[in-house]
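Researcher: I'm comparing several assemblies side by side, and this is the next one on my list. It has 788 residues spread over two chains. Same procedure as the others: predict the full complex and return the structure.
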Amino acid sequence: MSDNRVLPDGTIRSLCGVSGVRCAGTKEGKFGLALIEAPGESAAVFTRNVAKAAPILLMQERIKRGRLEAILVNSGCANALTGRRGQADAMSMAEIAAEKLSCSPDAVGVASTGVIGRYLDLPRIEKQCSLIAPRLSRSPAAESDTAAAIMTTDTYPKHALVKGEQFSIGGICKGSGMIAPNMGTMLAFLYTDAAIPACDLKDMLSHAVTRSFNQVVVDGDTSTNDVCFLTATGSAGRVDNHEFEKVLLECCTLLAKQIAADGEGASRMIEVIVTNAGTETDAREVAKTIVGSPLVKSAIYGQDPNWGRIIAAAGRAGVSFDPDAISCWIGAGQDRAPVCIAGTMTEDLRAAKQALDAKQVVIELDLQEGEEKATAWGCDLTEEYVVINGKYTT
Amino acid sequence: MSDNRVLPDGTIRSLCGVSGVRCAGTKEGKFGLALIEAPGESAAVFTRNVAKAAPILLMQERIKRGRLEAILVNSGCANALTGRRGQADAMSMAEIAAEKLSCSPDAVGVASTGVIGRYLDLPRIEKQCSLIAPRLSRSPAAESDTAAAIMTTDTYPKHALVKGEQFSIGGICKGSGMIAPNMGTMLAFLYTDAAIPACDLKDMLSHAVTRSFNQVVVDGDTSTNDVCFLTATGSAGRVDNHEFEKVLLECCTLLAKQIAADGEGASRMIEVIVTNAGTETDAREVAKTIVGSPLVKSAIYGQDPNWGRIIAAAGRAGVSFDPDAISCWIGAGQDRAPVCIAGTMTEDLRAAKQALDAKQVVIELDLQEGEEKATAWGCDLTEEYVVINGKYTT
C-alpha cells in the first residue's frame, strides 16, 4: 500500500495534502475541539447503533443537503443519551462554528466523542472555538493539532493521504475502544480535491467503509457516535470514478489499520485474510469474527499458536464451510507457517509460534468454498484493555 | 430459587439426588475422565458451531435412538478439528465404556472438553476407565469426583438438584471460557427420575436451555464441543409435564448461574434483566448483548457506573427501541439505584457506584416497548481473563 503521508523530512501530511482544506485544533486535558473548513459536496455514513448520539441524529438529516462548509468536532463528551437537551446542544455547536465562519449552521457538520450520558460543556466549546477559528490554516502543524484534538484513548493521531493521477484523498480519524463491526465507522474526516457530486460520493464512501473501517474490530462494541464524513472540494476537477474508488478504499484502509493497531491496550496488530470463501460477505464475516474473538486475541498476546481457537471462531460466524477442507497459516508471505492444511493439523507448531513474535501478526484462512476474499484488522487483548476500561468515567 | 443441593451438614447432592444414577471420576493433572451410568430415555442439544467436535458429530446421530445407558466424558483434550481419526477415537471412547458396562456402544454418550486440535490419548482413557468403572456409586463423594473430573479452567465443580412434587432433576456441568450464546450449551449432564419419553424430553430440554445456558456469555466465543444431555431414569413414574418444565428450567438456571459466576478470571457475577420488551426474543438478545459487552464487563470490574455503555450495548443488539423512553437501574430489589429514568439521566451516580460493590451485580433495563422479559448472566472482565487465555496450550 502506498502511503504518501510522510515526507522525506518526516513531516506528516493528510488534510494539508488536499487543496481547499484548512484546519485547527486545541485540547485542554481530555476536552478537545477541532475545526476543519473545506467547502464542498459532502457525504457521510453513520453508526447503526439504535441509541444514536445527538450529533448523529442531527447530521443524518443535514447531510441530505449534500454540501458542507466545515466540520466542528469535540472530544471528552459524546453528547449521547442526552435527549432533547443533547439535540439542542448539537445544534448550538453548529451555530458556534457557523458564526465564526460566517456561514449557515445547516452547512456545519458536527461530531462528538467521549463519555456517554453527559451533557456538552457549551461555554467551553464556544471559548475553544473562538481560540482556534482564527488559527485555521493548511499546514502539517495545523493538521497535527486537529488530529490530536479529536483523540480520546487513542495513543497517537491517525492520518492518511493517497494520491491518484490528478487528485488526492486525505483524512484523519480517531478510534481505540468501542470499535466493532456493524457501524458507519469511528470518527473519520476525509477530504479530496476531486470534483464529485454528493450522490456519487455517498455510494463510493459506503463501498469503501464496508471494506475498511467496518472490518476493524477492537472489542465488538459499536459506538453511539461513529461517523465518517467525506467532502470533495473540487479544485482538481472531474476524475475517473473507478480510480477514485480505488484511491478512496486505500485511504480508508490506511486509516482503519491505524485504528486497529491503536486498539485499547494493544501490543500487536492482527490482520486476518480469508480466502476462497463462497461470497465476499462470507469472507468478511469470517475474518471479522476471528479478529474479534477474545480467545484468539488473548492467544496472540500470549504468543500461543492455539489455532483451534481460530477455526472455532470461524465456525460461529454464521457461514457454512467444511472444517475438514480448510487450511490455515500464521504469518505473512514467504514466512507464513502452516498450522492446518486441508483439515490436517501441523504437529510441529514452532514456526507458527515464531510467526507470532511480530508487531503485525497475519492469519490466513482458506475456506475452500469459492473464490472470494476479505481482510479484517484488529489487535491483541491485553491486561491493559481491562485497566483502561475499568475506570474510564472517573 | 430453591436450591436443594446442599444438605444441612454441608454435603452437596446433585446426581445422587436422582434415583437410578451412579457415577465416578478421576483426574491426572489436566486429564480427567468421568463415567455416569443412568439407563433411560435421553435427549441432547448440541453446539451450533460449524466446526463441531468429533464427539458432537457422533452423538448427533446416536442420540436419535432416544436412549442412553451411560455417558463417558474426558477433559484436557476436546477431540475437535481432528478429522476422521477424531471420529474413530470418539467411537473408541464409547466402546471402552460399553465394554466395562456390558452394553452396546451405541448406547454410550461421549463428550470431550479441552484443547482443540489435539488427538485423544486413548490408552490413558482406557486406563482411567478401568480405574473408575468398578467405583460407580450413588454418593456425594462419587458425584464430587465426577464433577471435578470434567473441569478445565473452572475453579469449582458445578452441581444442581431441584425437586418437584414427586420427582427430582439433578445435574452437573462445566464451563468457564469459550462460553457464548448461539450454542447448545457447555458440557452439562442432567438426570431425572421422572418417566418421560425421549421426544418430549428433547422439546423440554431445548426450551429450558434457550432460557438458561444459552443466556450465559463469558467471552462471546462459542465452543466446538458444547452439549447438554438429559436422561430420564423413570423410577418416579409419570409426572405433570408443565411442572417438569418448570423444575427443569430452575435446575438449568442454577447450573447456568454457576458457570457465569465462574467465568474465566471473573471477580463478579452479572445478571442483566430486560423488561417490557416487544418480544421475548428481543428481551433475550438485548440482555445477552449487554452481559457480553467487554466495555460493560470492564466497567463493572472497575466499579464504574458507566451506564452509557449499557445502553450503547443494547443499541447494537439488533432490536428496535426508543432510547428516550428507557429506564435503567443498577442493583437489585429495594436497593436498586436508577441511572436513567424515562430517558433522563441521573446526575448523582453515587448510589449506582455503591450497588456495584457486590459479588452479584444486577442491571435492569426497561425498554418500554411491550411486556416481555428475559434474563442473562455473565461476569466482569478482569486482567486475569487475559492471563488465563494468553498461555492456554503451553
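Model: For your comparison table: Confidence is low (pLDDT under 50) at residues 181-185 of chain B.
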